[in-house]
C-alpha cells in the first residue's frame, strides 16, 4: 500500500467512517442498522461457499474486515487467520470472536504482504476488486493454499455495480470507459465482467462462478423492498435467469481450487 492515490483510498474512507458512522461499520452488532442486511448478504455467499468449509479446517480470510465470514468459520470450530489493512476492523473482529469455539489470529498487514500461513480455505470476499493489482495478490495467496485447497472469492460486477444505491455520483464516465472507479480519499473499485474474472483466474479451476447480488446491494434493491431469506433467494434466481436483468448482477461469487 504505497501511495495515497489508488487502493489506499478505501482505507482513508474507512478511517473516516469509523469516526462518523461506527454503527454502520460494526454491522455484526445486532443493534447496527446494517446488521440484518449484511447477514442476509452473507447467506447469499454461504449458499455457494458453505460446502467448502469443513468444520475445524484452517481458514485464511484476506481483507476479512470485522469478521463477517471469520465468525461463521469460528462457529464451525475453524482455525481462522484474519488479514486486514484496517487495524480498527481487526480489533472489532477480535471482540466478536470471543467465546466462539474456533481460534482467531489477526494479522495487521495487506493482501500484498500475506503472513506465512498455510490454509485449507482462503476467503477473499469483496477484496480483489479493491486492490491495485489483483493478479499479484492471487499469485501471492496461491502458495498459502494447501494442495487441493479452495479459494472463495467475490468481486464487484461491471454492469450492475453502477446502478446500486451506494454508487457515488458523478462517475458515469469511469464506468463506461474502463470500469475502474477512483474517488480519491474515498474509494477505488475495479469492476469485472465475466471475461475479466476468467482472465484473472486463468490457470485456476473455477468450479463455481455465479452472478449474484441483484437485490441486496444490487440494482434491484429499491424495487424489491424488504426481503427475507426465502424471498431473497427466489428473486435472485428469477433475476439471474432473466434475459435482460440477468446481466445486471452487482457481484460475482466464485470458488477456485489451488
Ligand atoms: C468491502 S470490505 C469486505 C470485508 C469482508 N471481506 C466482508 O465481506 O465482510 C473490504 C475489506 O478489505 C480490506 N482491504 C482493502 N484493501 C486491502 C489490502 N490491500 N490488504 C488487506 N486488506 C484490504 C478493507 O480494510 C476492508 O476491511
The domain tally reads 1
Tell me about the biggest sheet? 7 strands, mixed
Q: What's the helical proportion of residues? A: 25-40%
How do the SSEs run, as a string of H and E? HHHEHEHEEHEHHEEHEHHE
CATH topology label: Rossmann fold
Strand content: 15-25%
Number of strands: 9
Q: Given the helix and strand composition, which structural class is it?
A: alpha/beta
The CATH superfamily is identified as Vaccinia Virus protein VP39
CATH class: Alpha Beta
Radius of gyration, in Å, reads 17 Å
- pLDDT average, as an integer? 94
- Quaternary structure annotation: single chain
Note the main attributes of this structure.
disordered N terminus, single chain, 258 residues, globular, 11 helices, alpha/beta, 9 strands
Polypeptide structure, described:
With 258 residues, the chain is of the alpha/beta class. The chain has one domain: Rossmann fold, CATH 3.40.50. The protein has eleven helices and nine strands. The chain has helices at 8-20, 22-25, 35-49, 68-75, 87-97, 134-141, 158-161, 172-177, 194-200, 221-224, 229-240; strands at residues 58-62, 79-84, 103-108, 119-124, 145-156, 180-183, 187-190, 208-212, 251-257. A seven-stranded mixed β-sheet has the order 3-2-1-4-5-9-8. Strands 6-7 form a two-stranded antiparallel ribbon. The model is unreliable at 1-6 (pLDDT under 50). Bound molecules: S-adenosylmethionine.
